[in-house]
Specification:
four-stranded mixed beta sheet; 11 strands; five-stranded mixed beta sheet; alpha/beta; single chain
Length: 308
């Protein structure tokens, strides 16, 4: 056997460092110190008598030799993972960890998750609500549900980004507020407090008013800024103004008459939904079962709403 194979552990560390172009991110993924990664890379370079990395700012860039070794080691490790999956992916029973925004988890997923548990009691779903795009590989997360206004997301770190529909955005408020403030035209919304998302630059109230042909938004002073959709919907459920929200997050409240869409005018920009996962995951059968249920359940969300 080739003596260089005794450096397999270092090659695995190299593949991670090369993929991230970072020793620190490789250390996070492999649960070792950055110093340990750096030492392994020095030892591997000495053993192979080639330079694999050169530092460029905060990134560790690959040399020509490093590029060649990365492509080979990446393919070899993926092939090994597929082989392991072939002997381990025979049963869907077990844990599945997924992540999405706090609002989606709280407002859409949790009220419906009992349906999945009834269908597949053998799969234990672990949910991480986070408003940051969590690193699936570093945190051992099997599936993410992410949202973007882009029509296509780039494939990062070998993960699959699979589109599965979109959510339109509408203004929503309580029926009592509509009656109290006589919200009869889009212009009349300027009489109400508006709940906005702090730092939102894309799906904005200004964009909705412009689309609806309403002038004067820049003079409106009754605004409340929040950091998530669940906070915004909590406010409007209690009669505090109007907010813009995605259909998946408020549809159940419209159906049970707690909220109303005062005007069937959707925002010109919508949120595209994406499933993100590793197609070589040992839990791919579990992922497929859960994502199929997600697609079917999402089809029950209405896409249009009208004032009654």
């Amino acid at each position: 056997m080739d003596k260089r194979l005794k450096h397999l552990n270092a090659i695995r560390t190299f593949e991670s460092a090369a993929r991230h172009q970072s020793y620190s991110k490789a250390a996070e993924e492999l649960f070792v110190s950055q110093a340990a990664v750096s030492q392994q890379m020095r030892q591997l370079e000495q053993a192979l008598s080639v330079k694999l990395f050169v530092r460029s700012g905060r990134k560790m860039q690959l040399t020509d030799s490093g590029e060649k070794l990365y492509h080979t080691s990446h393919e070899a490790l993926n092939l090994l993972v597929q082989g392991l999956n072939n002997i381990q992916c025979e049963d869907i029973a077990g844990d599945l960890t997924m992540t999405s925004t706090q609002a989606f988890c709280a407002l859409w997923l949790m009220p419906r998750l009992y349906k999945f548990s009834q269908l597949h009691p053998e799969i234990n779903i672990k949910i991480l609500g986070s408003n940051q795009p969590e690193d699936l590989q570093a945190k051992h997360i099997d599936l993410a549900i992410r949202f973007s206004t882009e029509d296509k997301l780039s494939n990062k770190k070998g993960l699959v980004f699979e589109a599965f529909g979109e959510d339109y955005v509408y203004p929503v408020c309580s029926p009592a507020l509509v009656e109290k403030l006589k919200l009869t035209t889009p212009q009349s919304l300027l009489k109400s407090p508006l709940i906005r998302f702090a730092n939102e630059r894309i799906v904005t109230w200004r964009g909705w008013f412009d689309h609806a042909g309403v002038e004067g938004y820049e003079l409106h002073t009754q605004k409340t800024d929040v950091t998530s959709s669940d906070m915004a919907l909590s406010a409007v459920l209690n009669g505090h103004g109007v907010t813009l929200a995605a259909t998946a997050l408020f549809s159940q409240y419209v159906q049970n008459k707690q909220l109303i869409v005062p005007f069937n005018i959707k925002h010109p920009i919508s949120w595209k939904r994406y499933l993100v996962f590793d197609q070589h995951s040992a839990k791919i059968k579990r992922i497929n079962v859960f994502t199929q249920w997600l697609r079917e359940e999402m089809m029950t969300v209405p896409l249009k709403f009208e004032l009654e």
